[in-house]
Design a protein that fits this description.
By secondary structure, this protein is mainly α. The protein has 9 helices and 5 strands. Its main location: membrane.
Length: about 280
């Protein structure tokens, strides 16, 4: 006899059109709106942090609102170009080599967070040097606001019915249109909660409660560690990309885990470096 949990575990996927609205022949997708929302909210939050001199070393913000306004274009390019190139190299290279036009077909696989992180990091380094901004402070302010983009991006993944989870019978499982007639973990929502909401609150506690921005690089390290741990945890519930599958064994090591694991060490190094640099000031 089926239990209530079993019955709920075969919930159909919510009927949400991936296209938010259309203007003539132009279709506006939720995925694109998610990127816009993440960037704009992150930009607004960054301006608020930058305007609070008491949060920064020497009680003076190292970046102006005007500089942040200029940087938003650099950040957008870093996220989009890095994210797409990262997906191609990490997840879809063989398919793109067979059919190069696939490289611009963003609906085939989409974006890679790790590639977007690399692209944005390069953009930050160049922008900081051109504008005489301390690199680690720019890293910190961007790290503090990235969870906005992660949250909206994962919600868009859920709406699109992509990057779904592994088979399960948990009461909140969902049957995705592209995932076969099987109940799966809504792993996109797990990531939205951990990488978005939880990580945003943790970073805000360090920024405002512990004045961590006074130790340049500390917030960056916390973000990198926090994201890596969240991603590795969710990878145990997320179905790996079909073209790669599991890299070791039949049910655990994925490309997401491989790319995220070094981030833990990198994040810890950034935290320890920041504490060491700040020690003489204490």
């Amino acid at each position: 006899m089926p239990t209530a949990a079993n019955l709920l575990a075969i919930m159909p996927f919510p009927d949400i059109d991936p296209i938010a609205f259309s203007i003539g022949p132009l279709a506006i997708h939720w995925y694109g709106l998610a990127y816009v929302a993440g960037i704009l909210l992150g930009w607004a939050y960054a301006r608020r942090i930058a305007a609070n001199d008491s949060l920064w070393p020497g009680n003076r913000s190292p970046i102006t609102k005007t500089q942040l306004d200029d940087f938003i274009v650099w950040a957008a390019l870093g996220v989009v170009l890095g994210g797409r190139l990262g997906y191609i190299f990490f997840y879809d290279l063989s398919a793109v080599l067979r059919d190069p036009i696939r490289a611009v077909e963003i609906w085939n696989g989409g974006m890679s967070f790790h590639g977007g992180l690399a692209g944005t990091t390069i953009a930050m380094i160049i922008f900081a040097r051109r504008n005489a901004i301390p690199i680690w402070s720019l890293f910190d302010i961007v790290a503090a606001v990235v969870p906005f983009g992660l949250f909206f991006g994962r919600i868009a993944n859920f709406i699109n019915g992509e990057l779904w989870g592994r088979l399960t019978d948990v009461p909140w499982a969902v049957v995705f249109p592209t995932g076969g007639p099987f109940a799966r973990h809504p792993s996109q929502l797990y990531e939205a909660g951990l990488e978005g909401i939880v990580l945003l609150l943790v970073l805000a506690a360090f920024v405002y409660g512990m004045r961590a921005l006074k130790s340049p690089g500390f917030v960056t390290g916390v973000f990198v560690c926090g994201y890596a741990l969240s991603r590795i945890f969710v990878e145990f519930f997320r179905e790996p990309d079909a073209q790669l599958g599991y890299l070791l064994g039949t049910s655990w090591l994925t490309m997401g885990m491989v790319l995220s694991s070094p981030m833990i060490l990198l994040g810890l190094w950034a935290v320890l470096r920041a504490r060491h640099q700040a020690a003489p000031q204490l």
